[in-house]
Amino acid sequence: MRQGRFKSEVISKKDRKIFQERRLGVTPQGAHRMENKRKTIVLEILNYWKITEFLGQTDIPQESTEDKKLIKNIKNGKEVKAEKIEVFFDLPVLSSSDIDLEMILENDRDDYAKFSSVGDDIHFCLGKVERNTLVDYLEKFIEDKSDNPEIAYPKKSAIAWCSFKTDMKGVYLQNSFKLSPILWAIARWDESRAHNSHDFSLDTSEYEELVGEIDEELQDQNVDEFISTIYEKIFNEYVKHRFLDDPQESMGIAEYNRYASEQARDADEDAFDYADLGKSFFLNDIIQLSELVQNGNFGDGNEYEKKVIEYILAGYEKSKGFDNLPRTIISPDAGKSEMKRFFDKVFNVTNSPRGKWPAKYMPALMQQVAVNIAIRQDGDAPVFSVNGPPGTGKTTLLKEIVASNIVERARLLAENAEDPDSLFEMHSFSHGPLEANANAYYQYAPHYYSINVDEINNYSMLVASCNNAAVENITIDLPKSRDILDSLESSGDDEEEIRCGLDEVHDLFDINKSGDVETITRYGKSHEEKDIYFTRYADKLLGGVDCWGLISAPFGRKANIRKYCNSVLKPFVEDYRSNAVREQHKAKYLEVRKKFLSQYKLVESLRNELEQICALASSVPVELQEDAPEDLSCEISDVERKRQMFERQLFAEQKELIELEESRPKGLFARRKDTSARDIFIQEKKATISKLNGEITSLNNRISGLQNLQEYQRCISKYSHGQMKMTPVDTVFMERYVSEDDRLSTKAQITNPWFTAQYNREREKLFLYACKLHKEFVISSKCMRHNIINLMIAWNVFDDCGERMKLADREEAMPYMLQSIFLLTPVISTTFASAQTFLGDVKKSGVLGTLIVDEAGQAQPQMAVGAMFRCRKAIIVGDPKQIEPVVTAETDMIKQLLTAEILAGYKDKKISVQAFADYINPYGTYLGKDEEKEWVGCPLVVHRRCIDPMYTISNVLSYDGTMKQQTAAPKEDRARTFILDKSCWIDVAGAENSGKRDHFVKAQGELVLKLLERKFERDPIDIPRLFIITPFTSVKEGMLEMIKKSELYGKEPRVRKWLNANNIGTVHTFQGQGTDEVIFLLGCDSKSMGAVNWVNNNIVNVAATRAKFRFYVIGDKAVWTCRPVRVARECTAEILTDKEVAELLGDKTEEAKSAPAKMSMICPECGEKLVERSGKFGKFIGCSGYPKCHFTQSI
Q1: How, if at all, do strands 328-329 and 923-927 pair?
Q2: Do 594 and 826 touch, CB atoms closer than 8 A?
Q3: 556 torsion bin: left (phi>0), alpha (psi -120 to 50), beta (else)
Q4: Across residues 914-921, what is the average pLDDT?
């Protein structure tokens, strides 16, 4: 069992009170001491994250399949088209005296004669310990083993004991030695146990000191002089008696690179460092933020910085019960009056974006709520989270934010610059080689420039995620012309004016109808190209995809940046190098600026009209809206008559009171002599007057309300049809919103109040003109051109400059050069892991504008802090009800052993960027009940991805029935490609494979093969639309192996393509993806109930919602009794045996086709039981909730 215990509480009751007072905005006595305590906690959390990242260690490098194939072809004398090969070789056994590198390289020179150039160094990895061995060792000390009892790495998953590099002669390279951080941490734990210490912590400075000592010992030595010694040292101190008793046969592996030419070698910037055992991409960012906080340069500067600090503290405060943040619940559960007040505030047109992404349909209700809050610049929610269940339109929401930001930035450009270059301030480099040109790097771009209106930088947009597919999908989708044009298509049901408005905007985004023609001159030849927004650059960047504009680009990896430079920046510099061309575009900029400001004025005018109606609607009392008189004019006249009557009575009563007061008898010194009868009479008069005043006030309020209602009805009447039609937030709307009738509440959720089609079309045109304004601004600015050239020099991709920019100059200039790039490409995406590649030189905070985090539920909290501190606002989008972040088992176990109580809230593997952002978000709702009750950010609820039963499974399991179904059924031609006519549970019993934690059941796999064969028969496309998903790695591996050995694999060539496209995997690998059909392969037998019970709601939710139209669950019903899988089974329309399915697939008789099926007990519309009923047309399936629910299904 684990030894040791938690330390005593870090925060006392007094300090806790101070924390709570700070939450409420109180400045308590001793606040300065509290600030120091707070900073200490923040730094300790950041240090913990630093340790977490430090412990991440890569597997021992394996030669890639592609590289093996290359080398095999080379040795067989075949021609290969490659610029580089990676050469691996095994190190000798310990008994060997030395390594003859010279002979190895000489033999390789002969073998790889066409790859004559070699890299600069050789990477060595010594020793090997399998990860499962580490897990088994650490598991003995972990108290709670229930969290993930079924972790099992692939057989080849192992880590090295240590690594280092030498030059090509074998001489050790300074500072290259790395000791396995995991082995070091385990040794520290054992040392702590040996001393019976109750506290366990890790200090990376001790590791650095140890590694530094070894590094010093190895200086100037040749590998054959020290390799055996260092191998034995690490074995004896860190491996022996823990994982191995005897040294291994081989000391390890080594790797170096060979190139087809010197040029290929020099161009290889992405050469992988196999001797770098660490795999953390976030460590440097965490260290950077720690230094900023430590030095007082981050945390108290503005509301956003304070919110980022709250984000870091979220785990600590949540674990301590500091959940006293102000909460605004966005849910029908909050009540009609409360939600009416909220909608009146948030939906007021003045709070909505001026720009709109082109599309016929508006965002749904909660999407617009999220957009309106997200775009605010008043510091109300500088870190704002959106809880987006599967298929609820997160991408639609992001598009609206993109359109808004581009329009607002265009406004600032237009208002502040008639001449684009007037917006820039010049700066000089300090270390460039051209001293005569102010230490420049390139004589024709000697300076770099900052934007002197800093508010402009608020609107750059960085999209980040740990899910590579998620970020690439966004940046590839935004520029697609076809997506926009399809979304603007009118239908036959549309009125004429609606159709005309859509067609007008449609044509503006159709490149074939664009009136914007660019004359491109290169190498003395000119040609014309139609353009919308740098359309040709977008097409080239995205590989010929039909694009409308360069609205976004994927960054991160060096290969992506290089592609962006080659596709965009270099052509831009070449196309607009002439002063004459820039002058032409400067004139065009003034034209576009005028057009933009005119359109902006029009949108403002329409906006003001709509805002007046919003204000009128808010001014009408709810009770009047609910019970409005039929004839308002008559009602107003009646009330006015009543008021006049009361006013006359009041006048008479006041007159009598004055007479009574004046007629009082007067005594000595003019003091009144009171008499009790007169006083009583006077008091009665006063009471009557007070009552009359109250009546008159009440009548005045009613008259005002009636008049407002009358004016509102007069104004709203012209917004009832055609392109002026709108949905107001009135009593009818609110009744629908809070209704328990699912159809009525859905109707409210799919509407977007206060917007008209006319207003939307003008907003879409404004967005287009904003893009045009950006385009002409960027082209006509000489300062922009210089920044682009210098950025390419900093990235070492500018061909006309032979020297890369010095680090000090990069760190000084990079923030301003990147800000310029966002003017050219408004949205740039990256994975968190790759962000360091292009943000590493940005050391300052608040350089970029809006950070948008996608699939935030998959990312560990520390992954986002590097991007967060460099931005000014964060919009966090994800779903805490999907798969939590993936954490390696041994690292997680070491984290569990750390004893500082301050870290208790950071050890749970389920914490994520989404969870932390939700916690500090004042806008959201509660999901779950009792202990499972959880606050989530602003909820999206309209679901447009899956039909039943997937929708119902997800809604019941994870979202408390809050989602609203709006998914269309599949078209007939698509339905013919499906394996079976309905989704179903297929009951297949069987024994697991023998072997530790291998949950693959052969009988289930055999049935999957039959289903797979049917899919390939029915779906003719190159890669059929089917996923096979499982909770377990061992089931995935077993299924892959069975398919590759099957007859189908041999006879159907598409199967190999389908497998290569990664259509089989664990649930974790499919988040963010979707397809037509999913086979959810469960595996397991009765001996693995621990594994069965490990499968939670999130796993089943993600698996089910990957399928749009069919979901086939295969497992042993008697084994799979855990609640999440049981709910999925109850929501599924049919339950079949494997024999029944085999008959359906193989026997074409009517008997086989009507194999008996058991109906589930759940109605997909209301959740009540389904029962068999009889009617005049025979038997049918109906809902037991009838007559409230009218769901039926034929038998």
Answers
A1: parallel
A2: no
A3: left
A4: 94
